[in-house]
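Ticket #4471: structure output looks truncated?

Reporter: J.K.
Steps to reproduce: submitted the chain below (242 residues) through the standard prediction queue, then opened the result file.
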Amino acid sequence: MAEPNRRQWLSGAGALVAAPTLMGAGSALAAGEGTGPSLYDYVFFELAPGSPPYRRPAPTLGPILHGALQTTHGKNLGLFVPQLGWSTLQAAALLAWPDDDGRAAAVDKLRTAPDMTSVRTHRLVATARPAKDSVPLPGGIYVHRWFVIDAAATQEFVALSVQGWVDFENRFDARIFGLFADERSAEDLRQGVVRLFLLTRYRDHGVWQASRDPTTEAMKAFARRQALTHVSWAASTLLIDI
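Returned output as attached by the reporter:
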């Protein structure tokens, strides 16, 4: 991925770091839950077939991630392996950066890692979450969900998310870890869209299914959010130690 145009980044998705405050969200989110590192990389790996019968992500990717990050300030927040929606050869890592020092070189190492069919990277900026210094909790399942929306609807989308999270987290054994904006490509800019990434922990798939109840206050807010969405897709994963 090419180095972003800084002017476009700061005036576009990068400005979302302040979105909760600008929207006047009346929760702890507006008071600074989103004041941790604002720069992240989501790295999606597709491992080359191995023998037998496929390479397992943890022993393959653990040393690769460690080697890429060891001389930087970057932190691996988690390696996620498939439950539903990904093949057995796919996995993703979420990296957090307090600054840009060493970031580009580390991501380049991951892009050229051996034994991979492909490595796709997304430069992300935090919106309302993650909270400062937060890390994904162990156990449960993590649902990775992507949205494509009109750029002009971003603040409304984030505000509806914050609104829905209150009832959602009170009602279900679930927790939103983060909502991030992806760096906009030239095609995204041409089409006037933004891609958002939502990472949510559920106790299990039963809770994920129960949370779809359309009568809850959370789902009413999320339904309005969905009306702003051109397309979305999701997969469930496990967070593993490496």
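Triage note (M.O.): checked the attachment and the full token line is present. The longest strand covers residues 229-240.
Status: closed, working as intended.
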